[in-house]
Each structure stands twice: as C-alpha cells, then as structure tokens.
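# step 3/5: fold
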Amino acid sequence: MSKTPRPRYRRATATGVSIATLFSFSLYGSASATPVGHALGRTSAGSFAGQTLTVLDGAPTGADASQTQAYYNYVAAQFKKQTGATLKWQYYADPSQEVQTIETSTVSGSGPDVISYGTSFVGTLWATGDFSPLSGPDWAVLGGESSIIKADLFDSGISPSKYIGIPNETNPFVMVYNTAYFKDAGISAPPKSWGALVQDAQKIQAKVGHGVYGLGIDPQDSYDPWKSIFFLDAQMGGGKPWEWINPQGTQVEINNSYVENAIKFYFSLEYKYHIVPPQALTWNGAEMASAFEQQKVAMVIIGGYGYTAASKGTPVANNLAYALLPTIPYGDTSMPAAGIPIETETTGNYWAIPNYASSERDLALQFEKVTLSPQVQLYQFKELGWIPVNTAGVTAVEGYSKVAVPFINAEAAAIPTSIAPVWSYVETGMLTAIHNIGSNLAASNSKWNDGYATSQLFQANAAAQVHATGFGGSGG
C-alpha cells in the first residue's frame, strides 16, 4: 500500500508545548533581540570561497527520503557553484527538536545561519525578537519582493513591513480524480460546486458499481481534516477563517454556527449523501490515498502533487488528474455574498536568518537566492512535487508540465491561517474534535448527533482559549 505523500517535518506546525516555550523567549529576552542593520554589496556572489554556511532543515525521512537527500545535495552543489562556499545541512527529526535547536541557538547566540520553518510558525519566530525584517537591499539580492507569488508572502512575516522569511516551496491542496470513472459516468469536467460534486459522485456510483464510492475523506488524519473545515467555513460565509482567533490573539472563536455547519456538511457526505464509504470515518491520509489508488473511490478533496509518484504502478496510474476544489456551497448556484472562494490554505517552507548570524547574512541571502532560482524551483517540482513560489519558477515549471497549473492557480488564491502563537492549539483542538466526531459517527452506525458535535467544538475552543495571549501582529 502506497502512503500518502506527507509534508516533511519542517512544514508541520510546532507542538503547542514547544510553541509556548519558544514564545516565552520574548518574555525573558534573547541573545540578540534588537534588529541588526545590513547592506547589499559587502561581498559579491562568487567571492565566498572558503566559507561555510549552516542551514537547519528537516531530516530526509519517509517515503521520499532518497529524493529529499538528492535535493539537499543538488542545492549544495548549486550553492558551491554560485558562491564558492560550502553548504552544511543540519537536520531536525521532528518539530520539537526544531524548536529546541532554535531555542538553544537564539539564547546562546550561536547556531545554524539559516533556519527553515513551516506556515503558521512565523508569529512565534517574530515574538522571539531574534529575526529581523528583510530590507530593500535584501530584496534586491532575492529578485525583488514583487517576484514572489503574493499569497506566499502571507507567512513571510506578521505584516508587509515585517517579512522575516523567504518562501522556497509550497504544497497547495487540490481535488484528485479518476478520469476513467468520470468518462464512464458521462461527466465532462470536474465539479465547481459542492452540489455538483455530490451529484457527480452519485452518478459514478450508479454507473460503475462494484462497491466504488464517489469520494474519499480522511477524518482521522493528523494533518488534513481541519483544512476541509477551514475551506468550507470560508465558502459558506463564516467570515475570515484565520479569525478563528481574533487579530489580537486573545480570543479563540471556533464554536460558532458556521464552523458547526461546515463540520456537519463534511460528515454528511457519508451519513446523508452516502458518497463516502462508511469505513472512511476511520481513515487517515494514507488509507484514503490507498483507496483512491486501488480505484475504490473516484475523488479525494485534500490531494497534492505527490499523488503522481504515489500512484505509479497502481490501477489508477493512467487515470489520474487534478482540479481546483469546489468553492460554491451545497445548495447554492453562486458564491454567497460573504463567502470566500478559498482553494487552499498557504502551506510550504520558508527560510529565515537569525540575528546572531548577522555576520553571515550576505552569504545566507545568496543561499536563499539559489533556492529561488528557476533551476532549483524546477528541480523541486520534478523530483518532489513542490510548487514554485516566484514568477521565474512558475514559468519554468509550467513549461515543463501543464499538470502543475491547478496547483499554481490554487496557491495564487490561498488564504493564510492565523499568525497568533495560539494557532497551534486551535489546529490541534479542531483535529481532536473532528477525530472524535468521526469516531462517534462510526460507532453509532452513521447516526449524526448535533449535540455531540457542538460539545466537541465547545471543548476544543475552551482548551485552546487557555493558551491565548496578547499578540502584537495583525493577521491576514
């Protein structure tokens, strides 16, 4: 059974305990809490021979370990070619180890010259006071701020004047579907509304039969389920989904009717419309992917480009296609006035330079420039399925494969999560609520219980609220 391509550890939000620890840095001070000055041109590219730059990133593990190691080797070779300097990778095995390394480094004033972080982590890094905003000269080295896809800058900082990170790859979500089943059912194009998705799934089930279901979901996954609710909430008109926490970071607001309706619709795909197999209530992402690969479900709604590699050698390999997710809520023919046609959340990886590495900043910027180059952006896509973050990378990738277009379009319309440090607790709380609701539905033979769902959201909200604190940034 092929595993669903999972984000490497570097893209995961840090655990709540670790975030609380890291956020506390700003309370007792750090080795270099005052932003440092820097200027372009102290040293030119190609004249760093004999120097070494250390970069912290996730260890190459899992199904794509060999490809990830090859990527690290490729970037190191390109860096050597462009600067004459040596690149030394330092790895962490999980988010907790990442935070521990950052904590030790920022307090001691010594550590990796560049660190990687995932989306939703930037507010925490900013709170340490150990990362300075990029200057105009910095951006000049990197090709200009306007060269970066706008949505990918959401998690570069807490506001446009406070960008501390540079994106190098993204992993937007799209719908994955089986073209053979669509053809058999007489469906000419993927659905743009949730009503059309339900109808298409029912057509496929009626035509194909043999126990095939129209859709797969993964409510027990450790990453995916809250994202589906995030999207549905926004589409239904529940307001800005990043405001599941208020902009000040002091109030968690996930136990409301819009979130409840989003969760109810998500599970109604199984208990009411019967286009999801009952056993999917216990699925994680790998099990959902396996069902799709074995042609037991016709569509999945939280998919990534990694399905291309994962599906090789499986029955669906020649019938795989991608499309933007439906955005029009069920029962509507157009987007509600207050709805947001969200396609994906911002998700990916960023590089940040700590203040204690100010003497290495010029070389660190050259490293970031290398990772933004068209050849590296194309390499990442070809070998790992990572979507480019700048216009030059998009041009290179679209020239290589039109399959990337739905992902690039989805990323362009991405919506960020909250940057408040309490976000990790909200994410964890939502996951716990969805897991419990799915398990309750499975145990009750698909009998929906409004009261149980409401109580789970209430508990998730209360548990996260305990960790809400004032925050100086402005979200979105």
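# step 4/5: annotate
The chain has two domains: 9-170+347-412, 174-343+420-465.
# step 5/5: archive (pending)
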